[in-house]
Design goal:
The chain is built from 5 helices and 6 strands; from the N terminus they run H-H-E-E-H-E-H-E-H-E-E. The chain has a 6-stranded antiparallel beta sheet, with helices on one face.
Length: 166
């Protein structure tokens, strides 16, 4: 009798767990979101003060929540941008730096529409490190059009020191 009561108790205790377990369907996958093309220059100018004056911008902001639920909100964000600088700014940036002709990475079709025709893209790893505070940032520059293509992960605004009160 004790064995039968023990089996009955075990069955009653595990039944609710079984009902809540694998029978539930996973939530439906979210549909891919279409990223908005932004044209404001203020946010990028604040994050890239060494780049020079940005006179035109087409860019996308893509947040990724890869926190695994440990921290609320997106933990990484990506920025891809086609930027137009003041005339002569790209030449100023490249002056005295080693840069190589290079192909652009795969650019989203939406942003590709804003790339200059016939551009000759130059890249300098040293400029990547100098121009941005980010987990990663790569700049491709076209001197003829004063255009820049930027691909960055977690692009931050630099710290601005302020005099202490006192």
């Amino acid at each position: 009798m004790r064995i039968r009561n023990g089996l009955l108790a075990a069955a009653l205790l595990t039944a609710p767990l079984t009902a809540c377990g694998s029978a539930a369907e996973p939530p439906p996958a979210a549909a891919p979101t279409k990223l908005e093309v932004r044209t404001s220059t203020e946010e990028l100018t604040a994050r890239l003060p060494k780049l020079g004056q940005i006179v035109g911008a087409h860019w996308q902001f893509d947040p990724h929540d890869n926190s695994g639920g440990r921290v609320p909100g997106p933990s990484d964000y990506y920025i891809d941008a086609v930027l137009r600088l003041q005339p002569g700014e790209v030449a100023r940036l490249l002056k005295g730096r080693e840069a190589r002709d290079t192909a652009l990475p795969k650019v989203s079709p939406v942003l590709a529409a804003f790339l200059p025709n016939g551009a000759v893209w130059l890249h300098s790893a040293k400029l990547d490190r100098e121009l941005a505070l980010a987990d990663s940032a790569t700049f491709w520059l076209d001197p003829a059009s004063d255009s820049v293509y930027l691909s960055a992960n977690n692009l931050s605004a630099p710290e601005i020191s302020t005099p202490s009160a006192g």
